[in-house]
């Protein structure tokens, strides 16, 4: 089911968004700030504030770690095609790789425990002229700060390693491959390795004097997969649309949405420390925001989408600091939603209930607690069962092959089973919690223990 085509925002909404943009530019002391919003696959608003050196939609800025999402999609694309496995250890593709025992999946989700930065000069400011051999030599004998899978630890180095794996798996240099296999099919022809003519200049703003100091834009070499790319709001609007819908020639919707599922990150490290496979997961929107922030000397960037509402926000600034990238995207999206609420897909009956979901529907009891399990259509058009208690969603369930699995809630990833008691009564087994059609009575023995309220 699709929503009606997107329309440009109303003039009153544009004024509110312009005010948001102006406050972000002024409060952040940003030489220039450009932004756009996507709704249902189309740009519905685009504007710049400050000394934008050209057209707001087509002026290039450096996008920093948004580059990581492009690298991740390229890896995920190969995995979907069966050309590699996310559970491959790095050494399968790069025998002399540093930290070669960690998996591609762990690197994508920043759960591999490897150092945050490569050894040697700061790659973002000094550039990295060396190749993969020099990177491996520089890391030789260096101890990882964490055991794999133990905790979230954001790692630029990990994405440098992933770039080498991508090049070895495809036989092409990293940028040539992502350009041809990922960017070109999406029409992102303005996303480049180096700064194109007319690109914004990167600046550092003096904290007291209000003067501008030029920042370097070095080639980051072997670390390019972590933050090298330049792009425009127009191109990143295409990227945001891809994140909302997938693309048959790049990564289909189901495989892309699987990359949005949380890995080891739990948010304790602050905004953006809860991660999927290459994507930051932020609170906000209808059911959370997905995307990535980015920073390089002289630039800050943001690209986040709200999958449930079909909206996305892009912001690009040419200052080393001053823009809280994730919150800024959430702010624009919240203004859009408040001024022009998202239209839900029209309700429509279904022809049939998917067989594995049918026995779950209705009222279930866990001790004195009562929940209602009803069929709903998710934003991506997939039928799911939503279990709610007093209006609060407890769990969501979808069919995964021959299983029905929780996709949200305490039992995420676990299967719900329909079982039959000795007396012929059907009940649900959810992680040893027994849910029955009638409330428990005193003295009932329940698998998994006596329920507590």
UniProtKB/TrEMBL annotation:
InterPro entries linked: AmpC-like, Beta-lactam-related, Beta-lactam/transpept-like, DUF7586
Keyword annotations: Hydrolase
Descriptive protein name: Serine hydrolase domain-containing protein
Pfam families: Beta-lactamase, DUF7586
DUF7586 domain location: 354-437
Domain Beta-lactamase-related, residue spans: 23-333
Superkingdom: Bacteria
Mitochondrion keyword on record: no
Gene Ontology molecular functions: hydrolase activity
């Amino acid at each position: 089911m699709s929503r009606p085509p997107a329309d440009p925002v109303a003039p009153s909404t544009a004024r509110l968004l312009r005010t948001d943009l102006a406050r972000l530019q002024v409060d952040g002391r940003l030489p220039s700030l450009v932004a756009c919003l996507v709704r249902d696959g189309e740009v519905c608003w685009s504007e710049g504030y400050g000394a934008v050196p050209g057209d707001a939609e087509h002026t290039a800025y450096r996008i920093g770690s948004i580059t990581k999402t492009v690298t991740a999609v390229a890896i995920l694309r190969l995995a979907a095609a069966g050309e590699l496995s996310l559970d491959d250890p790095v050494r399968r593709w790069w025998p002399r790789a540093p930290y070669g025992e960690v998996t591609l999946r762990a690197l994508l989700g920043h759960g591999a425990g490897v150092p945050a930065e490569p050894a040697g000069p700061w790659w973002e400011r000094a550039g990295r002229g060396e190749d993969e051999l020099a990177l491996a030599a520089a890391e030789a004998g260096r101890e990882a700060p964490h055991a794999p899978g133990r905790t979230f630890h954001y790692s630029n180095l990990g994405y440098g390693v992933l770039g080498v794996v991508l090049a070895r798996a495809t036989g092409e240099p990293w940028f040539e491959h992502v350009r041809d296999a990922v960017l070109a099919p999406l029409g992102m022809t303005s996303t480049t390795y180096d700064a194109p003519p007319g690109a914004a200049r990167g600046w550092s703003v003096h904290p007291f004097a209000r003067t501008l100091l030029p920042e370097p834009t070095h080639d980051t070499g072997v670390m390019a997969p972590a933050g090298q790319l330049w792009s425009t709001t127009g191109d990143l609007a295409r990227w945001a649309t891809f994140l909302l819908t997938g693309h048959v020639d790049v990564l289909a919707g189901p495989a892309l949405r699987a990359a949005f599922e949380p890995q080891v990150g739990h948010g304790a490290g602050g905004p953006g420390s809860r991660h999927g496979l290459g994507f930051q997961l932020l609170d906000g929107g209808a059911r959370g925001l997905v995307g990535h922030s980015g920073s390089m000397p002289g630039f800050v960037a943001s690209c986040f989408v709200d999958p449930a509402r079909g909206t996305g926000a892009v912001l690009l600034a040419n200052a080393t600091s001053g823009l809280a990238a994730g919150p800024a995207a959430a702010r624009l999206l919240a203004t859009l939603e408040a001024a022009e609420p998202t239209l839900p897909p029209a309700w429509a009956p279904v022809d049939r209930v998917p067989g594995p979901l049918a026995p779950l529907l209705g009222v279930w009891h866990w001790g004195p607690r009562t929940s209602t399990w009803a069929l709903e259509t998710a934003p991506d058009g997939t039928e799911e069962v939503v279990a709610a208690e007093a209006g609060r969603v407890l769990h969501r369930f979808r069919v995964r092959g021959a299983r029905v699995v929780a996709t949200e809630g305490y039992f995420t990833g676990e299967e719900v089973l329909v079982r039959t008691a000795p007396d012929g009564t059907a009940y649900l087994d959810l992680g040893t919690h027994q849910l029955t059609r009638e409330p428990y009575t005193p003295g009932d023995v329940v698998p998994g223990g006596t329920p507590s309220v």
